[in-house]
C-alpha cells in the first residue's frame, strides 16, 4: 500500500513531556483499529482489531494493523486496552500476543470474555487480564486510565480517559447515544461533562456515522418491525446478524417467545458468543425458547427460527451456504423469511446482494435494511457528535474509526462547534501533543498485514496483484527450447492458457513471431535465459493485448538444450 502522505518523514524524537499518538490501523478504513500512545518512553495500546478483506484481495482471511514500527519495543508496552468486543477492536490481539504473550489486557467483563475464547482458539493461555468497569481508575506506568460507559451495538463498551503529564486524552471507542437502549446503559454524558470540565486536551471520536445527519434511532424502534415480520411469516424464519449483537439476538428471542416459536443458533461464533453473553447475564433467554439445531428440524416450519451469522455475505458463513443451497442441514424453501438485521459495511455490498439474490431465487422473502427498519447503526450520527463536542469542549480533536471521508466529515462537525485545532491523521501518521497543542509530527511505515491461512505478513500487495490478474485475466505459459550451440530455437514454442475461452490453436499466429524475436535477440548477443524470457513476454503481451484486449499473466520459460 502506498503511503497516503509521502511528504511526511520519520518524526523527530518526542519532546520531553509530550504525548505521541499513532494509529496502526482504523484511520482510513472501517476495521483493524489500533492506536498507540507513547509517553516518557512507555507505550499504551488501545484496541487491536482486524479488517476483513474485500473482493479485490482474493484468498486473504484477515488484515491486521501494522505494528512493525514498535516490534522491537513491545517490552515497553504497559497494556492493551480493549474498548469493546467487536472483531475490528479485538480480532488481532492473538497475533500481537504471539509476539509478547504477557502484555496486560484491560477491558470490561464481556469484552475480555469474548477475547478469551478467541485466545484459547489460538492456544494462548495464562494471559494477563485486568477486568474493569465504568467509573474504574487504573494506573499503568505513566498512564492513568479512567473508564466511562458508552452505548454501542454490543454490551459493556467503554470509552477511556488517559491522563499523562502531557494532558488528558478522551478516546470514545465506538459509541452512540441511544437514550432508551434495551439494557438501559447509556453513554455517560455526565462523565463526559466532568472530564470536559477538568479539561480534555485531545478528544478521539468515532467518525463512522459523521456523514449521517441527525441522530441514530433507538434500538427500541426495531422491536415492532421484528414482531411484524414474525406475525406475517407462516413458515420458517432465518435471522442473520452479527455474532456479537447481543441486543439484536435478545429482540429475536423475545419475538420468538411471543410468537410461540423456538430458536436455534447457526454458526460457530454465534453459538459461542451467545453462550458467553448468557453465562455473564447480558442475554436473557426466555424459558424453553432455545433448542439445538437437531431438535429444531423436528418442529413444523412455522415454529422454527434460526439465528445465523453471515449478515455481511461472508462466503464461508452459514447464510451464504444457505443461499447457495449447500448448507448441510438448512434448506431454504419457498415462503421462508430471511431477516438481515445488520448494517452493510462498506466494501461488502456485492457479497451481501449476492446472498440476498440467492435467497430470493429460492423463493424466500428477504427483509433487510433496504426495505424495512430492521437495523439501526451502532455509531453516533452527526447530531450526537455535535452534542459531544459541546459537552466535552476539547482543546484538540482527532477523528478516528472511519474512511477518510468519515474522518473529514467528523472534523467539520468539531470545527462547527468551535474546536480550533482538529488533526486529520491516517494510519501511520504520528501526532504529538506538546504544550496542549496536537500536531502532525511525521509518519511511520504502516501497510496492510495479510493473514492467509497460517501465514502472517508474508503475502504482499504484489502477490495480491498477481492473484487478481490470474483471477480476472487468466494466464498463458510459453515454453521454448533454445539450442545453446546453434543459438536457434530447437523446440516450441509450446503455448498453454487458462482462463481463455479459446482453444490452444488460437496461439498458432504468435508462434512464428516468438521464434523470430528470439532469433533476433540471440543474434544481438542476448543469450541470458532471463533476457530471452522477457523477449517472449513482450511479444506475447503485445499480441494478446492487441488481438484479445486482455492482460493475462504471461509465464515464459526458456530452456537451453
Ligand atoms: Zn464496534
Ligand atoms: Zn469498530
Radius of gyration from CA coordinates: 28 Å
| Category from helices, strands and their pairing | alpha/beta
Question: Mind summarizing the main beta sheet?
Answer: 8 strands, mixed
- End-to-end span in angstroms? 42 Å
Helical coverage, percent range: 25-40%
Ligands (ions, cofactors included): zinc ion
Q: How many strands appear in the DSSP assignment?
A: 26
Q: Quote the beta fraction.
A: 15-25%
DSSP helix count? 15
Low-confidence parts lasting 5 or more residues at pLDDT below 50? none
Give the CA-based shape.
Answer: globular
- The strand order across the widest sheet is 7-6-5-3-2-1-20-21
What number is the mean pLDDT?
90
InterPro entries: Metallo-B-lactamas, RibonucZ/Hydroxyglut_hydro, RMMBL, RNase_J, RNase_J_2, RNase_J_b_CASP, RNase_J_bac, RNase_J_C
Function: An RNase that has 5'-3' exonuclease and possibly endonuclease activity. Involved in maturation of rRNA and in some organisms also mRNA maturation and/or decay.
Binding site for substrate: 375-379
Family: Belongs to the metallo-beta-lactamase superfamily. RNA-metabolizing metallo-beta-lactamase-like family. Bacterial RNase J subfamily.
What are the key terms here?
561 residues, alpha/beta, eight-stranded mixed sheet, seven-stranded mixed sheet, 26 strands, 24% strand, binds zinc ion
